[in-house]
Amino acid sequence: MKPIQVGLLGIGTVGGGTFKVLQRNQEEIKRRAGRGIEITMVADLDTARAQAVAGEGVKVVGDAREVIANPDIDIVIELIGGYGVARTLVLEAIAAGKHVVTANKALLAVHGTEIFAAAHARGVMVAFEAAVAGGIPIIKALREGLTANRIQWIAGIINGTTNFILSEMRDKGLDFDVVLKEAQRLGYAEADPTFDIEGVDAAHKATIMSAIAFGIPVQFDKAHVEGITRLASQDIRYAEQLGYRIKLLGITKRVPKGIELRVHPALVPAKRLLANVEGAMNAVVVHGDAVGTTLYYGKGAGSEPTASAVIADLVDIARLHTADAAHRVPHLAFQADAMSDAPVLPMSEVVTSYYLRLRVADEAGVLARVTSLLAEAGISIDAVLQREADEVGGEGSTQTDLIILTHDTREGTLDEVQAHLQSLPSVLAPIVRIRKEELS
Question: Is the model's pTM score more than 0.70?
Answer without folding.
Answer: yes
